[in-house]
Design a protein that fits this description.
The structure holds two protein chains of two kinds. In chain A, the strands form four sheets. In chain A, strands 1, 2, 4, 5, 6, 8 and 9 form a seven-stranded mixed beta sheet that branches. Chain A has three helices and 17 strands. Chain B is mostly helical. Chain B has one domain: MFS general substrate transporter like domains (Growth Hormone, Chain: A, Up-down Bundle). Helix content of chain B is about 75%, strand content about 0%. Chain B is built from 18 helices and no strands. In chain B, helix 13 runs parallel beside helix 15. The chains are: A alpha+beta, B mainly alpha. Chain B: This is Monocarboxylate transporter 13. Chain B: It is found in: Cell membrane; Golgi apparatus membrane. Chain B: It is a multi-pass membrane protein. Chain B: Belongs to the major facilitator superfamily. Monocarboxylate porter (TC 2.A.1.13) family.
């Protein structure tokens, strides 16, 4: 089970997820001081005391290991935290709660590449959900190999930022414009990043299947006409009367 | 239709067998053409999402593309029929296929929305209008005994192909964007040209054409000829008018569940997935209904017009029951009614066109179909806004479905005013025109399903 908590101005957070395995997602926009608190009832046969500790991004945090007493039939483990990351509180080896502290994700991420043609234009979108606060600013950049290329102010590119939306308009596309484009929503605490792939293809690409089908149609029509010619030669004598009926469709009573 | 229709005595059994087989080849051609016309139209939604993004226009502005296409298809249907009467069915369908493909290919280069209206809307729509009516008439003219089944099988393509096209178009858009995908769609549509080539040419037409044009050149004669190509005199005949009125009424309710069933189930509280699944399930029984009703009708136990009345009444009833069934909040009840509704609406679709030659005679069926398409379509376009309006006024879909469902029932009552409706056998003639003694043969043939297939070819029995 996941829970999204949007924290804006609060500087204290108190959550008590119960159960054995649980993930709490906490979205942060501004630097805040958080207190993460975990509670565990100790399973079927709770021991009087167990060891509890914290992990960040999978690694145990130094000096976080403490011995927990069973108080009011539950163990409590707390930690003050102000950095983003994936945190887990672990009770012995038996139970844990995951906290994910992150900036809001850029919404509506396109998992499929945007395709466009050489010479045409393409529009790449990024947006933050309406329910979330506006980012301080937006950035666009492109990955060239492994290097960030921020020369996105070149004249064929146009960045339009509208509060929670941003779009990158790439005019006069060249095949070299293909690649991953990154948009960054900048918040006070960190930046949220999303990426969109742009594929620039030449018009020759769809022309290939087009020509294949065209040839298929031409061959088919030719085959039908040839077949008909061979048939009509075979049945020529029988056709004298037959055509009489063709006029029936048109029934001229003029 | 085709001039390969033999007199029974002039052809060997083998040739007859070949001709019957050719009928099924034409069914396959109709199957492919309808899927490339209506199945494609139904699946264009994938593109509209992309257009909204690319052109940054409202969804409503974008949806005018398909409205223009559908309107053009229906508006040009009588033109398609008239051109077939005047020239050659094969040439008309092949031209239609070419235009349908051309429209989509040009649309792939659109730089503004107007380009899309003109290409996908007008050019492709004109092409689609030249395809459907002539192909349906061609298939019907090639069958007497299994005509409804043939149509049912061919029409089942619309449902089947939209199941296949949706993911296919999605894939194409992802790989090539909407531009490349439209280009490929255009190429796929050109396959209709091949379907049209399967229609055998009418050689006598040319000859007749000459004598016609030699004889008369005056303006009045031209008008008269155009009107006869369009089969406009049909509009003065009571049976045809009654039938068209009935189908128009049926059409008012026919499309409403397509547009509002999902919204209704969402409103009643079912999940998005559950609601979409109700619609897909109804779509599946619709496919089944088309084939099953075609098969059942061709057993010949009942008159087609009676079966049409039956399926229409049932479809109307189930449309009314759709919101009633979900009153209790039972998903199972809604599902059962949707399945039944899908089946009945599919069943009536196969019959609507198969009845036309019985009303106007095989010879005028082409024009009759074209005009029917034009007239009934108006009602189809009217029904959905009407039920949307009722929803806005009352706040839920109860009244919408009630009204939508009562229109097909009203249509059945209109059908009952057809001459000889209550006769248990197909009347010898529906129309008051003098030239239909051939149709007498046709109608009696249709009754005697077990009779020898030798002169089963419509019109050819002259």
């Amino acid at each position: 089970p996941k829970k999204h908590l949007s924290v804006m101005e609060t500087n204290f957070l108190f959550c008590q997820p119960l159960g054995e395995s649980h993930t709490e997602i906490i979205e942060l926009f501004n630097p805040v001081a958080l207190t993460l608190k975990c509670t565990w009832t100790g399973g079927l046969n709770p021991l009087p005391n167990i060891t509890g500790y914290w992990r960040k991004d999978g690694d145990e945090l130094e000096n976080s290991r403490v011995t927990l007493q069973l108080v009011n039939k539950q163990y409590d483990l707390t930690r003050d935290e102000e950095n983003l990351g994936n945190y887990s509180c672990v009770f012995g080896n038996e139970a844990k709660v995951d906290f994910i502290l992150e900036v809001p994700q850029v919404g509506d991420v396109r998992d499929k590449p945007i395709v466009s043609y050489v010479g045409d234009y393409a529009v790449i979108f990024c947006k933050i959900q309406e329910s979330k606060p506006m980012p301080v600013s937006w950035n666009w950049y492109k990955l060239n190999g492994t290097d960030k290329v921020s020369e996105l102010l070149a004249d064929w590119l146009l960045q339009i930022h509208e509060n929670r939306n941003t779009k990158l308009l790439v005019n006069n596309l060249r095949e070299a414009d293909s690649g991953w484009y990154y948009c960054e929503a900048v918040y006070a605490i960190s930046t949220a990043i999303s990426r969109v792939e742009l594929k620039v293809i030449s018009f020759w690409e769809p022309l290939k299947p087009f020509l294949v089908i065209l040839v298929e149609v031409i061959l088919l029509v030719a085959a039908i006409l040839l077949y008909e010619r061979s048939q009509s030669q075979k049945t020529c004598p029988a056709e004298n009367n037959g055509s009489d009926e063709s006029s029936s469709m048109r029934q001229r009573k003029v | 239709m085709t001039d390969h229709k033999p007199k029974a005595e002039s052809r060997s059994d083998e040739a007859k067998g070949q001709d019957k087989a050719w009928g099924w080849v034409l069914v396959a051609a109709l199957f492919i053409s309808t899927s490339l016309v209506f199945g494609l139209m139904r699946s264009l939604g994938v593109f509209f999402v992309e257009f909204v993004h690319y052109f940054e226009e409202s969804a409503q502005a974008i949806s005018w593309i398909s409205s223009t296409g559908l309107a053009a298809q229906q508006f040009f249907s009588p033109l398609g029929a008239a051109l077939c009467n005047a020239y050659d069915t094969r040439a008309v369908v092949m031209t239609g296929g070419f235009l349908a493909g051309l429209g989509l290919i040009l649309a792939s280069q659109a730089t503004c929305l107007v380009h899309l209206y003109l290409t996908m809307g007008v050019i492709s729509g004109l092409g689609w209008g030249l395809i459907f009516t002539p192909m349906v008439a061609t298939v019907m003219a090639n069958f007497t005994q299994r005509r409804t089944l043939a149509l049912g099988v061919a029409f089942s393509s619309i449902g089947i192909s939209s199941f296949a096209f949706n993911p296919l178009f999605q894939l194409l858009v992802e790989i090539y964007t909407w531009r490349g995908a439209l280009l490929i769609l255009g190429a796929l549509s050109l396959n209709i040209v091949a379907c049209g080539a399967l229609v055998r040419p009418q050689k006598r037409v040319k000859v007749k054409q000459k004598t016609d044009s030699e004889g008369r050149t005056s303006c009045a004669a031209m008008l008269q000829r155009v009107s006869s190509y369009l089969e406009l005199p049909l509009l003065l005949e009571r049976p045809y008018l009654t039938y068209t009125a009935a189908i128009t009424l049926i059409n008012v309710g026919y499309f409403v569940p397509y547009f509002h069933l999902v919204a209704h189930s969402r409103q009643v509280g079912f999940s998005e997935y559950q609601s979409a699944f109700v619609m897909s399930a109804a779509g599946a029984t619709d496919i089944l209904g088309r084939v099953a009703s075609g098969w059942f009708a061709d057993l010949g136990h009942f008159r087609l017009i009676h079966l049409l009345s039956l399926w229409t009444t049932l479809a109307g009833t189930f449309i009314i029951l759709l919101p009633v069934s979900s009153l209790s909040g039972s998903y199972a009840a809604l599902m059962v009614i949707s399945l039944l509704y899908g089946f009945c609406s599919g069943a009536l679709t196969s019959l609507v066109f198969a009845v036309v030659p019985l009303i106007v005679g095989v010879k005028r069926m082409m024009g009759g179909l074209g005009l029917l398409q034009l007239i009934e379509s108006g009602a189809g376009l009217l029904g959905t806004p009407l039920s949307g309006f009722l929803k806005d006024v009352t706040g839920n879909y109860m009244a919408s479905f009630m009204v939508a469902g009562s229109f097909p029932i009203l249509g059945t009552l209109t059908l009952a005013t057809l001459p000889h409706y209550f006769s248990c056998t197909e009347p010898s003639t529906f129309q008051r025109c003098a030239h239909d003694d051939k149709d007498k043969n046709l109608h009696s043939e249709l009754e005697q399903i077990s009779s020898s297939p030798s002169d089963a070819n419509l019109g050819g029995a002259r």
